[in-house]
Amino acid sequence: MSTCALPPLIYGTSVLGNLYKATSINQKLEVVSACMQHQNTPVYFDSAGKYGAGLALESLGQSLEHLQINPSDVVISNKLGWFRKPLTSAAPTFEPGVWKDLKHDAEQKISYHGILACYLQGNMLLGKYKAKMVSVHDPDEYLQAAGDINERKKRYRDIIEAYKALLELKVKGEVASVGIGAKDWRTIARICRDVQLDWVMLANSLTIHSHPREVVEFMEHLRDNNISIINAAVFNGGFVVGANYYNYSSINPKHNSALYQWRDSFFSICTRHNVTPAQAAMTFAFRAPGVSSIALSAASPGNVHENSTLLNATIPVDFWANLVNARLVDEQYFERYLNNN
């Protein structure tokens, strides 16, 4: 199996699904237009049926069609496992409080037939655009929701059956590649032993703040087996660039003092070297073994423009060395992946 060819930057589309706040279709159109302007074609978008109960997929397809984008000029990744259904309550029942102003609800469908239903519905929502990269969305969370060991075994069989369906789509030429998106790298490692994947998307797993050696070793294993890696959530949910969230959970200095002390030291070294936290975090994550792409959320046109420049930053070795000396970055990682230009 050859490494899946991917661009350095992939645009996340959660904002198109009204993540945390409602966004107008005109604002979404501006975001998609900016993505098309700041990258060479084909431009890659990462979406999911879970994003706004399919709203992100629907908004992406509508925006691309309004902009008259040729389907060959985009590649869409659809993380599958959530199926749009009618909204019968005052608010959606899945991920309460996360998605705003939705007109639909969503239910989880991870099985052979369930994942095919999600795939077909996703393409319907995209309109004239089709998902060419497919995966099972957050199988780690699906397993964690099991009530006991027997249910966990049953859920794992569901996941394997879902991948059987996706691999059949690939054999038929309906999709170009099959991967996985998850936060728990151990779940990815387990599935990789049972399923021949083209790529994996690691979320919150390797960042400038958190880069355990066992994760680095797993990434080296993926690289050596020609499985491409998309590194996602490289800002730890916004924490390393100033937000009061860590991996999407709210934090504060009183109860999370160690995190804030790390960030204060990190910001201080960034300032001394005239390096922005975003540049440092992005470069660090991209230098990791086997990483083909960084997935970043396209939150606004200005955000898209800023993100498009991050990978071109020139960061001196002394900056990384100072992070090591301050015990903010692992020395072994520095020696293997940062101690060169």
Question: What attributes does this structure have?
Answer:
two-stranded antiparallel ribbon, 12 strands, 341 residues, alpha/beta, 12 helices
- Classification by helices and strands: alpha/beta
Biggest β-sheet description? 8 strands, parallel, barrel
Total number of helical segments?
A: 12
Total strand count, please? 12
Helix content: 40-55%
Q: Radius of gyration in whole Å, from Cα?
A: 20 Å
Description:
By secondary structure, this protein is of the alpha/beta class. The protein has helices at 25-38, 55-66, 112-126, 139-144, 149-171, 185-194, 213-224, 257-272, 277-286, 301-310, 317-325, 331-338; strands spanning 9-12, 43-48, 74-80, 82-86, 104-108, 131-137, 177-182, 199-203, 228-232, 245-246, 249-250, 291-297. Strands 1-2-3-6-7-8-9-12 form an 8-stranded parallel β-barrel, surrounded by 6 helices. Helix 2 (55-66) runs parallel beside helix 3. It is globular, with a radius of gyration of 20 Å. The two termini are 30 Å apart. The relative contact order is 0.12. The model has no long low-confidence stretch (mean pLDDT 94).
